[in-house]
User: Fold these one by one.
Assistant:
Number 1:
Amino acid sequence: MNSLLEQLCNLNGPSGNEDLVREFILERIKPFAETKVDALGNIIAFKQGKKRSPVKLLLDAHMDEVGFIITSITEEGYLRFTTTGGIDPSVFLARRVIINNKITGVISTKPIHLQNQDERKKIPQADKMVIDIGAKDKQEAEKYVTCGDYAVFDSTFQPFGQNLIMSKAIDDRAGCYILMNLLCSESEYDFYATFTVQEELGLRGAKTAAFSVRPDSCIVIEATTAADIAGVSEENQVCRLNSGPVISFMDNSTVYDREYYSQTFKVANELGIPCQTKSVVAGGNNSGAISVSASGVRTLSVSVPCRYLHSPYSVASLTDIKNTQKLISALIPRIASGKI
């Protein structure tokens, strides 16, 4: 399990530059499904099952991760940037990044020794920070970097604790990992799968992919915020690690299909799979675009609980990932056949 997931998480694929992730996935799923890539860069796959599906079912996971894009180069050779996706500035101060998969740098800001009292109380925003790549001036920096180049956190996958992992990009390489495994296994019923781009920039890939597939129903496979950490009250923890896949009834982008929501817990209970509700209405995912595409799509979100999303090191449980895949595998024939 760790090997494929580790490879996926270690690939660099910020929103708008998912090429390495797309090539990796295509190489591995082509023997098991019909595939094509649309103009925006989404992978659209068709998995032939043993039976035709009365309900046209789509499974979706997004390939992109949060990152940075270079906006200008100062005369001193520092790189100004903005974020691609929502990143709290507090998590990227003094962090190592990699640009174009080859140039390393560090995100810097004014040293504490030079800050006044007011500055010390505030976290600087991205437009006040720069990336230092060790260039002596603008002319040298321009040999290696140009405006529009992408950067991501330079951090790698590591197992730790009791069956836990830490890595960048668990959101949503965990979903990609699950969806790849489902495509590479036998299926009772046909289904479609999309590995989408630019989710972190506003669900852009999902809009075009859903328009192309025109599904009746969809399961979005995601990673969602687990706030079971020190200083967060139980009612605000959203979900917890090692408590199973997370089922949403509503978030900031979607009100989920009520029958699918309730039936998912029944299926999980029948199979002895631990399952939990996303207890806070927050965040959003590709469901926000897919559910309202064409004449509407019945949509369910099944997520892996994940601490510290959109940071250099998110944390997830391998047991939760395994149980999320097991639950979705059980839902496919039930939804595709129209039984639920």
Number 2:
Amino acid sequence: MAIMALSIGITGLSQSGKSTLFKSLTCLSESDVSGRKQPLARAAVPDERLQRLSDIFKPKKTTPATVDFLDMPGGGSSGLGSQAVAEIRTSTLLLEVVRCFNHPYLEGVDPLADVDSFETELLLADLKVVEGKLERAKKLDPKERALLESLAKPLNDGDISAVPQFDEEEKKILSGLGLLCIKPRIVVANISENDIEDGGPYYKALKELCDKQGTPCLAISAEIEAQLADLSADERVEFMADLGINESGLDRLISICYKKLGLQTFFTAGEDECRAWTTKVGAKAPEAAGEIHSDLQRGFIRAEVIDYPTFIECGSLNVAKEKGLLRVEGKDYVVKDGDILNIRFNV
């Protein structure tokens, strides 16, 4: 079965810069995202390997993998409404933006208090769901009841770090509730342009907290990303070099999101199209084939496989075949990041 579309919900308290980050990361103007309850932008996953394959095969079409960014409602003094919570629950992963910069028209910076405030809103929303489920459902499956009861105390205590780590089977049991406390979460410190070198003191304090929670935390300047979004590709490279930046915020975000969600990239390549696909780490060949089309998974026979570094050394599939480096793998083959696959199937 193909994985669900990767949707990253960008959220956080109001004035954190989450919407600015959304617009700059996706290179979209206000008009591009209007008319939706949840402004959505589909961004290409940056991957130099795909461009290199395209240079070699010279296909009619080159298609990158994509990721969906959703500009979710933010929390504030009045809290998150039920509709806002319902929208946030639709995300695959939560990207919590936290203000780590001073602004003359905003109150003082306190990222730790902001994180605590926002997380409290999420936990209270989940507590309402869990308690309601336990009170109303007298005939709950024993496994589901046990899982819900294990959540009740940390939710009551407002301690997100004490929320149990569930395995895949347990997550499946709870999946219908859309609980926010068990969704993968990444914290983004929205820093000042002046702190781009080391993140600044606010980021360091926030990262220390996140490290204790086991939550990934990275520093991004939405201000700089907004400037990058307005530049051409060549101008971006020059601007980033001037700032001493090796990767854009988007590149770093995609990388950390993939790692958090346990995802990887494989390729299909030929004269018609070179394309990057997303699948789970540990997926077997038929599962990866299913990302391309369900027919390929259903009628899977075998896959011709070559890893990316080996292919680049060979320079072409013909040379790889002559050297015996194009392998034939069956249904039990575990796909690796960067594999180039040619699926053989029959339906």
Number 3:
Amino acid sequence: MKKIKGISSILGAAFLAMTLVACSESTTTEPVAVAAESTHVITETEVLEFQQSWGEGIVHIGEVFTSGGDYETAASEHINRFYGYEDMNTVLFKPTLAKEVRHRDTFESAMSYFIGGDISEDKGFAITPWTNVRWENEGVIIEGNQAVTMGVYYFTPGNGGEPVEVEYTFAYTKNNDGELKIVLHSSHLPFSATKAITEEEVLEFQQSWGEGIVHIGEVFTSGGDYEAAATEHINRFYGYDDMETVLFKPTLAKEVRHRGTFESALSYFVGGDIAEDKGFAITPWTDVRWENEGVQIEGNKAVTMGVYYFTPANGGEPVEVEYTFAFTKNNDGDLKITLHSSHLPFGN
């Protein structure tokens, strides 16, 4: 890690000159104020301890959430402790997973990012939850009561998965009470030219898609809002919002073979304006089992072909269906279906 101290700048020089002039023209009480100001100089140790505490704070919010405690208060305390919303005119905060509202320059918008709130894209970063935050500073620049760090931190998820790598830039200053505060926080996922898909992602995606179909049927059977369940399913798995075109040929579609819109896909899954649609997902089914003939991956695109088996809730034999799927990753790195072609086997 590089440490750089005492970097001169026009602003720093001007500030120093103003201080010297003030000292030369001051009364006997003014040097005391300048001496007090010198105690606000930031040290590298303070920066490192502050980073460690920030990470522990993120972990703590998740722990409180998991235990059913008042995680909103935990998040509020975290923001007030580490960010300068109360002390500074402006806090520049670009969270890792923010796109619709990229910059969070108010306490409320930061709160929404950490635990979810009024901003629809916010799922609650701090309540993921995480079990550890590890910092790797590329460098620390200190100039009086201001400091800047850049590097990579690693968030270990509570489900035991691999640490998530995030690039950061932070700027800190001390307030009038000598407390370190964040005035700039910019986080981004590492650059990826292709957002390459892995086979593991494809297999997990298929499993989740099948579970989603079963879930829609369960909601329908229990008298719940199965249309909302189907809407969530389509938005999660299909690229209608992200891609120019989704090619979807459902198994039991003939009058309207191809479903290139969200509405026509919803009709197929739960019934709707298309007369032939009886609601495939509300049959209902209790299980979907996949048998891939193969998985082909090229960068951020993947294709699978095979047979899946839908087990009906009435206890009948699994229904055999042949499929071809194509997937791609959107700009947020989410896997989406861009082609889905299903057919009953020849002779049926």
